[in-house]
Amino acid sequence: MIHMEIHNAKKQDLYKIIELDKKMIGSDHRKEEINQAIKDEKCLIMFQEDEIAAFLIYHTHFFDCSFISLIMVDPAHQRKGLGSSLLTHMTKISPTNKLFSSTNESNESMKKTFIRNHFKKSGFVDNLDEGDPEIIYFKSCY
């Protein structure tokens, strides 16, 4: 696993985070969500030199538990353990005892990342993406 510094995103990081998100999904429609996560100090980033290599957004509105709503790794940095590093860090700093996240059933890479990091399947939600259920994952933080 590669080690890079992980810290809370700052206001000045917003544009670079939005650019990475846009690069991955082809849209900047999550810019307000990202901006709010930065304001709430719930956006973690990893830098490689001067570029944001990965970021994570979480909240605590999922039945009063921490929920990672978004993990994004720049394609140039994928398969290097950045997602795992973010999950490990989040497990250590989670403000709640329980940490949840989710991914589409079709996202084999993220499913493997959750399993490698000792997250357990906790259920699924149908009808978000047609024909591709969302799998919920859980890990105890203490």
Explain what the structure shows.
The chain has 142 residues and is an alpha+beta fold. The chain has a single domain, classed as Aminopeptidase (3-Layer(aba) Sandwich), CATH 3.40.630. It has four helices and seven strands, in the order βααβββαβαββ. A seven-stranded mixed sheet has the order 1-2-3-4-5-7-6. The protein is globular, with a radius of gyration of 14 Å. The model has no long low-confidence stretch (mean pLDDT 93).
Radius of gyration: 14 Å
Tertiary shape: globular
CATH homology superfamily: Gcn5-related N-acetyltransferase (GNAT)
* Helix content estimate: 25-40%
The sequence of SSEs as H and E is EHHEEEHEHEE
CATH fold-level name: Aminopeptidase
Give, in spatial order, the strands making up the sheet with the most strands. Answer: 1-2-3-4-5-7-6
Low-confidence stretches: none
CATH class: Alpha Beta
Taking the sheet with the most strands, its summary is: 7 strands, mixed
CATH architecture: 3-Layer(aba) Sandwich
Nearest-integer average pLDDT: 93
Structural domain tally: 1
Protein name: GNAT family N-acetyltransferase
Domain N-acetyltransferase: 4-142
InterPro entries: Acyl_CoA_acyltransferase, GNAT_dom
What are the main properties of this structure?
seven-stranded mixed β-sheet, GNAT_dom, 4 helices, alpha+beta, GNAT family N-acetyltransferase, 142 residues, globular, 30% helix, Acyl_CoA_acyltransferase, 7 strands, Aminopeptidase, single chain
